[in-house]
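Lecture 7 notes: from sequence to structure.

We start with a single chain of 693 residues. Read the sequence below before looking at the structure.
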Amino acid sequence: MISRLFDRRRAWPAALLLVAAAAAPAARRADTGAPDQRAAVTRHLDMTYTMPEYRTREAWLERRRALRLQILSAAGLQPMPEKTPLGANVFGRLERPGYTIEKVYFESYPGFYVTGNLYRPSGKTGPFPAVVSPHGHWAYGRLQNSETCSVPARCANLARQGYVVFTYDMVGYNDSRQVNHRFRGEREELWGFGSLGLHLWNSIRAVDFLEALPDVDRARIGATGASGGGTQTFLLTAVDDRIAVSAPVNMISAHMQGGDVCENAPNLRIDTNNMEIAAMMAPRPMIMVSATGDWTKNTLQVEYPAVQGIYRLFDAPDSLTAAQVRAEHNYNKESREHVYRWFGRWLLGTTDAARVAEKNDSLAFPSELLVFYGRALPEGARTERQITDAFIESARAAIERLKPAGAEGLRAYREAFEPALRSTLMAEPPAPGSVEANEISSAAESGYRVSRLELRRPGNSRPDNGQDQSTRAPSKGDKVPATLWMPQRETPRRAALLLHPRGAAAFEDGAAPGATVRALLRERTVVLAPDLFNTGRAAFQRAEVKNFFTCYNRTDDANRVQDVLTALAYLGSRAAGLPVKVAAFERAGLWCILARALAGGEASWAVDAAGFDASSDESFLRLLNIPGIRRAGDFKTAALLNQSGRLWVHGAGPGFPADWIQSAYASTGAGSRLRITSASAREEEILAWLQQP
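Now the structure, written as tokens:
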């Protein structure tokens, strides 16, 4: 019986368990070739990536939609926060030859202030095109003025040429001193709140600020920045279609994705890279400016042709250009003049080089540009802790505000939170019949056949893990060990998927099936028990974890959610037409609640909540660490996305949102398909449930 077997296995010496777990993968690899690529390859910011190939515009547009949701979710902006009044303050005008400079601050979030300078043309009549200008990681931020990079010179010359320009502080620079630039925390990541998201939100609100100015032409807004400002530029253009023309400088690289926390949010670059994100600008005009002395040295040979492939899908190759300067990492005069000419063509309608040539000028002193020089922050300005707490509370409130009451409420809730959960889990159910099974061994026993399998998801045209397309195996690189028991001599009448944190061994008695599997076989049930990622036979010793691991790689728990979907898809095809039941024990129940949200179909699920305290961030960090999961509504959203089939949650402790889920189900007429009990089910109860029609 399951419980007695569990007790006996727990009694094994800890050292023996560790030896067994470590030894299993080596033997398996010797027998079956390449290991699970998710375990073998740790993606990171300094890998060399290949631009995926898209053969049709439709294929790219579908991918672009998914990427946009992925970026917004990684930034904590899915669903989009409420755009509260900016309350912009513009003051302290300085008159300069051909332009003016003003100081600006506004609230992107209540209590958080974006600070910067507004450069405007003088002696000209608007409305004018506008430019948002994030500055990058220069020592003096938006005040940087050197041969390598001069943000004031860039803004002054653009204004003199006829643009309204807003250059604003990155978080933690100059006047923006409420939040440390590199703030991050595991709890905050559960809620999707971090440096990158705050920067991106500030950029979106900066566009809102420019749009509201009476002398700005809203149809002609450009964006440009270098280094970290280049990252902000292409992230902004990826999610905000209001940017008509862009110039990300010295940042789009196949082998360096950005080395700062403001460029590396969890989930951001899973299965993607900066080339693909930058290509989301297509078919809007973009110039890729690079340098011979940094990580963009190969742009003309590698990154530019790769992105150009996307522009060609729109028959717009002339909307993308590239330029390279002989210099170290920079946004110097030569680079700026490339951008002036490009913006002049698309935003001013001129190709007159003299009109857009840079002119030297005596620039303002830093004290004349600083917003809060000699003055306090506005009353009501919040601290970093207060801003974080307010964001999390706002996210909680959005979940409660959209709690479904009826079919229309369910539709609205799903519309808001389904994209967030899908992007957070980074999992997808394989197409029916697409999962391949490599049979390692098979044996006929008395009344049944047992097969040891490795399940593999089908591949696609997008290279994973930085692999070159020409060397990839025809799969995604997953390898999920599983044991399949098939009744012999009689036609099966149902199928069962059994899941446990220790994998298939939890349902075996030595080399023989355990009591539960034997009972199911007598009832003519096809039984599949997989070893989910980094459990059972799939356990492995992880290599050194790189910085920003979760920006490029799924967590173990997210991979396990995917493996549940993979195993379910395989069982569904192997037992085609048979009713399917899923029983998940201990912590595997948590993975299954999430997997069920994406699975669809009519399978019935009995899952163990294992007393998990879903009201506690600490519980998620210890037992279900998936960045963004709380922002996406965790178990509340998961339960509501799939109301097909029956769901029995047992072991639901006081912190599990049982009442919330039950009332939402009842309001949508699905209450009869849901059962939640606080007591953990006994093995006899689960077996009886599995044997029911």
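The radius of gyration is 28 Å. Keep this in mind for problem set 3.
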